[in-house]
Specification:
Layout (H helix, E strand, L loop, with lengths): L1 E5 L5 E5 L11 E9 L2 H7 L10 E2 L3 E9 L11 E4 L2 E2 L5 H4 L13 H8 L5 E2 L16 E4 L7 E2 L6 H4 L5 H10 L8 E5 L3 H12 L4 E6 L2 H9 L3 E4 L5 H8 L5 E6 L11 H11 L8 H9 E9 L12 H7 L2 E4 L4 H13 L11 E4 L3 H10 L7 E4 L1
Parallel strand pairs: 11-12, 11-14, 12-13, 14-15, 15-16, 17-18
Antiparallel strand pairs: 1-2, 1-4, 3-5, 3-9, 3-18, 5-6, 6-10, 7-8
Helix pairs in contact: 5-6, 5-12
Bound molecules: nicotinamide-adenine-dinucleotide and zinc ion (ZN) (2 copies).
One zinc ion binds next to loops.
């Protein structure tokens, strides 16, 4: 089959790889009808995720038709149309039973390695390095889904692929980011990053009762998409974000701040971001948490900082003094996607949200390598890429 394979920083190739096969009775094989490129894939593309190997198949936003089912899988049958969560979860362990699917303690075969770095291992993920299981991803013609009697959600034929595909990751992630803010109605939520995840966080914050959303980015089309959802926008290259949020909130700060950017921010020449760049370039640091620092400073006393932008290692100069003295709450996670699926599919079916709004580019799999570059460079209005194998 054809798949998008990683060959090093900035080097994606569409090439032939062996077809996946059932390896465990609970597995299923999916013929992929649509898959997407995520901002998280860009961290791999940019070479900042460790333990990748040449030829690894990427992709963790995938849907399709079940073409083969393992003998122990009683949930799926051939012909089912399913969306596959990016987090792989057994459904039975301590964490899965509590709904913390992205903390599954069985699905990462590299758990020992991950625990050395992070203290404990999270779940395995599709197409996301050998630290998280080395599972081939879904930017491919076929995908093997482990524990396929837990993760995949069946969707009926009345909805298009573009309407349901993002249940695999960015819709639950944006929704979780807003849910973390514990909104009661009437709040002001500031959201850094108007990429696909930020766009879903904006719409979810409004659905959950935020009175005002302040969305921050610098890419004009992304800011325009945020305004279309009802957000007020700030361009961090043109305006001082802290000063503007102070002005907009009568000097108090935002009730909740969402970091939907993560470890690879664009920055003005602020001193903290210059130090971050130097440290990462000289292997003295792992991440560039400029946005997180800003989100903490812009959050009101006893407000919430919700982090869904991905960080990998050890973050320097996080203003914990500000956080503890002012009573901030921190929430963060790789999304336990399975936990959100029934509710969010319901929102789509009811017409409360149509996730296809975010799609700007649709192409065959072979155009994947060029679209990785276009999405990374945010060229020509590209906001979300869907590939049709
Ligand atoms: N927690 C999870 O489970 C989960 C799931 C999916 C994605 N993510 C992460 O969410 C983040 C966003 O993903 P995406 O797909 O939207 O990616 P993206 O790269 O398309 O979007 C990031 C956006 O942030 C903007 N940005 C950069 N620097 C900024 C700054 N200083 N201030 C404000 N905005 C800035 C960029 O212009 C861009 O529009 C990534 O880090 C990704 O890894 C996390
Ligand atoms: Zn993702
Ligand atoms: Zn589990």
């Amino acid at each position: 089959m054809k798949a998008l394979c990683w060959h090093g920083k900035g080097d994606m190739r569409c090439e032939s790889v062996p077809d996946p096969r059932i390896e465990d009775p609970r597995d299923a094989i999916i013929k992929v009808t649509a898959c997407a490129i995520c901002g998280s894939d860009l961290h791999i593309y940019d070479g900042v995720i460790p333990s990748m190997e040449r030829g690894d198949v990427l992709g963790h936003e995938t849907m399709g038709e079940v073409v083969e089912v393992g003998s122990g899988n009683t949930k799926l049958k051939v012909g089912d149309r399913v969306v596959v969560p990016f987090t792989i979860a057994c459904g039975e362990c301590f964490f899965c039973r509590r709904g913390f699917f992205s903390g599954c303690e069985r699905s990462n075969p590299a758990a020992e390695k991950a625990a050395k770095l992070w203290g404990h291992s999270p779940a395995g993920l599709f197409g996301y390095s050998h630290l998280l299981g080395g599972y081939p991803g879904g930017q491919a013609e076929y995908l093997r889904v482990p524990y396929a009697d837990v993760g995949p959600i069946k969707v009926d034929g009345g909805l298009t692929d573009e309407q349901v595909l993002f249940l695999s990751d960015i819709f639950p992630t944006g929704y979780m980011a807003a849910e973390f803010c514990n909104l009661k109605g009437g709040e002001t939520v500031a959201i850094w990053g108007c990429g696909p995840v930020g766009q879903f966080a904006i719409r979810s914050a409004i659905l959950l009762g935020a009175d005002r959303v302040i969305a921050i980015d610098t890419v004009p089309e992304r800011l325009a998409m945020a305004r279309a959802a009802g957000a007020e926008t700030l361009d961090f290259m043109q305006e001082d974000v802290y000063d503007r949020i102070q002005e907009m909130t009568a000097g108090r700060g935002a009730d909740a701040c969402i970091d939907a950017v993560g470890t690879e921010p664009h920055t003005t020449a602020s001193s903290d971001s210059i130090v971050d760049r130097l440290k990462v370039a000289t292997f003295m640091g792992t991440d560039r948490p400029h946005v997180l620092r800003q989100a903490i400073h812009c959050c009101r006393n006893f407000g919430t900082v919700s982090i869904v932008g991905v960080y990998g290692g050890f973050l320097d100069k996080i203003p914990m003094g500000s956080a503890i003295n002012r009573g901030l709450t921190f929430r963060m996670a790789q999304t336990p996607v399975q936990h959100y699926l029934p509710k969010l599919l319901g929102l789509i079916e009811n017409g409360d949200i149509d996730p296809s709004f975010v799609v700007t580019d649709k192409a065959p799999l072979a155009e994947g390598p060029a679209l990785y570059k276009k999405f990374r460079d945010k060229r020509d209005g590209c906001i979300k890429v869907v590939l049709k194998p």
